[in-house]
């Protein structure tokens, strides 16, 4: 698990090259960028396994403006997670273009994608993805260790993130000592500790009871109110009224 998360946050140690921040004022010409923060055009994602070809995404076009809260809905197997993975630079599209704050990121290698992702994107997973032999605080601190941040600043960021999700009193506990809802709160803290512009949440309430789910969605709403751009993958119709806009996927294609 640790190795996989290390690759997630840092790749093979390479950097993002000349790719600037996606924060306001860092557009292609060094000026504030007025276009969409996320822009996918003609995106295909094809997997070939044992000579079997699967089209996970077909000609997907999607724009997400800075500060939007967008839900991606659809049945299992519709391509929701694949779409989120491309938006979060976890994988590259097979065809099409992806621009992030006006910068073309379609051709970035894995190391550069990891560096940009760790700096600009916070991920929240359905399965929490906490490391069992690290404490709550150490799990939250993990992405910061790959940013070259001084230890004192890392500690301050971790404390603030845990306070934000009301988990500061659990900082020294291990994930196994927490309920599912508490583990997801820690995962939210880890996602926001680097103060990312974009938060991608992949079925974050899928393993939670209704009360825990409402708590996590309320946290996402607070983050959105503070200015975060959020993409929420879900098949739960309860959250449609929470977001500003919904996108429907079916068989890898946006149908609404």
Number of strands: 10
The CATH class turns out to be Alpha Beta
Radius of gyration from CA coordinates: 18 Å
CATH superfamily: P-loop containing nucleotide triphosphate hydrolases
**What share of residues is helical?**
25-40%
Q: Kindly give the count of domains.
A: 1
Q: DSSP helix count?
A: 7
Measured by DSSP, the beta-strand proportion falls in: 15-25%
Gross morphology is: globular
Mean pLDDT: 87
Which regions contain 5 or more consecutive residues with pLDDT less than 50?
A: none
CATH architecture annotation name: 3-Layer(aba) Sandwich
Order of helices and strands: HEEEHEEHEHHHEHEEE
Q: Which descriptors would you attach to this protein?
A:
4-stranded antiparallel β-sheet; 6-stranded mixed β-sheet; alpha/beta; 256 residues
Could you write a compact summary of the structure shown?
With 256 residues, the chain is of the alpha/beta class.
Task: Report on the architecture of this protein.
This protein is of the alpha/beta class and 256 residues long. It has a single domain, classed as P-loop containing nucleotide triphosphate hydrolases (Rossmann fold, 3-Layer(aba) Sandwich), CATH 3.40.50.300. It is built from seven helices and ten strands. The protein has a six-stranded mixed beta sheet, sandwiched between helices. A four-stranded antiparallel beta sheet has the order 2-1-4-5, covered by helices on one side.
